[in-house]
Amino acid sequence: xxxxxxxxELSQMFQNAAALIREHHAELSALDxxxxxxxxxxxxxxxxxxxxxxxxxxxxRSTLHDAGWKILSVDGGASSSLFGTFFLGVAxxxxxxxxxxxxxLAATFEAGLAAVSKQTRARPGDKTLMDALVxxxxxxxxxxxxxxxxxxAMHDAASAARAGAExxxxxxxxxxxxxxxxxKTRGHQDPGAASIALLFEGFSSALAKTxxxxxxxxx
Amino acid sequence: xxxAMDFLCGPAGxxxxxxxxKKFINRPENIVPELLEGLAxxxxxxxxxxxxxxxxxxxxxxxxxxxxxxLGGSGHEPGLSGFVGEGMLDAxxxxxxxxxxxxxxxxxxxxxxxxxxxxxxVVLNHAGDVLSANITMEMAKREGLNVKMVLTxxxxxxxxxxxxxxxxxxxxxxxVYKVAxxxxxxxxxxxxxxxxxxxxxxxxxxxxVAVSTATHPSTGQPIFELGDDEMEIGMGQHGExxxxxxxxxxxxxxxxxxxxxxxxxxxxxxxxxxLVIVNGAGATTLMELLILFRRVSRILMAKGIKLARAKVGxxxxxxxxxxxxxxxxxxxxxxIALWDAPCDTPYFVVR
Lengths: 219, 351
Description:
The complex is a heterodimer.
Chain A: H1 7-35, H2 40-54, H3 60-72, H4 77-92, H5 102-119, H6 130-145, H7 150-167, H8 191-209, H9 211-214
Helix pairs in contact in A: 1-2, 1-8, 2-3, 2-4, 3-4, 4-5, 5-6, 6-7, 6-8, 7-8
Chain B: H1 31-42, E1 47-50, E2 54-57, E3 67-74, E4 91-97, H2 103-113, E5 119-124, H3 127-142, E6 147-152, H4 173-185, H5 190-202, E7 204-212, E8 230-233, E9 244-247, H6 251-266, E10 273-280, H7 286-303, E11 306-313, E12 322-331, H8 333-340, E13 343-345, E14 348-350
Parallel strand pairs in B: 3-4, 3-5, 5-6, 10-11
Antiparallel strand pairs in B: 1-2, 2-4, 7-8, 7-12, 8-9, 10-12, 13-14
Helix pairs in contact in B: 2-3, 4-5, 4-8, 6-7
């Protein structure tokens, strides 16, 4: 039994990620103060609100779609545009159905990443959220190859996102407003990457808790 | 949200050991809706607040004319919404403080003003704004809307001349709104309006200097740090670091350094006609702006370059940052005529 993610699990994932972001928003703002204008935590709080609202949508696809559209609408500059684009990309993937097994999870999240990659020229190494997002999605794909459960796949993705976020401390910003600060950005994690890590950690711990339910998931 | 930071905001907050922010605001999360409401209430004959906090003309223009829409973060007043009105913008989408508005609201603004002639979307080159604009353009295409986009990127400090995509959009939005807005008002097609906006854009250059920082009105934090006796040439709209930090200089010396860099980048020659804009960043006084402008004007005269048109004042600010954006633009007869055409907006009127 490798399990699936249905609307119930997704709803738990969104609520849990929202809670985790709220818990850490002050740290995200502190990171942003080192390289930006210190408001990233506030933006992520608004994104967390939208994740929570979307969590009560009718089905899996509309939950993802509503999250994307609502997050695009929070006026949070590049962060909300990229987070929103990610969820819209996941929702629009043909594999996005009523329940995601590990293969569909990897495929839909890859579609989300592809949508983000289309909107930004930033790639891993540029000290942006891509440093966390790209390895997280790659580990979902790796989990398919090794036939892992969705719970373990998401756990791996969260670990990869966290490692990616931590790696940004050693990088110099090359994108967004932070690039104008150049070397001064070294020594601090990119706040967007740190937010991606929180998102996946929230997803992962929620899935671990609902593990017993997944076997009973129905369309 | 922001509860932990309430103490930083406004003169009425409880006593705490943090230095309180000396700004007349209420709750930080209400800054943007309240400032837009104030703008609409102050200029009811020119603009109105509609839909999801969009600023649009009080009297929509005729359906057969091209409409102009722009987007950008708040906290830079009177930019950008203060230039909505006859002869300039049809709608402006204001984001949060220093943060771009999301694509759904930009699309809403385009749908609001879209007539038979289409919409020109004017975007200042900043990562968040461009991202929202690109997403909006995709959505507009799917909706079958006729939208063209012009990107302003005239700040010579943020990228070399051969990489214009790296250059930021600063006060140069003003002449682009003005000439494209005038062209639209005259009934020119979307392609013609785009061509004019593009010609204006390619012929303008801006350089900024900052002498003191600003406070982020939501977080209460300074947006950058600068020594008491220093100035920084090349400072961006949000305190992004520039290219040259140096000891504070006189007005004449500052004007000379900045104008020489601008003239060299534009390759301006004797006999050409220039538009000059000296824009205050928020705390620099009109007195200082005029003293700087005086020197600019003198230098141009000495070089045989004609000062065709000028504007001195505040068009885009960054809170109480002290500093100046200096812009020069090469004009031709058509651009001069469009610059001189009538307009009626809260902060730019030509009769």
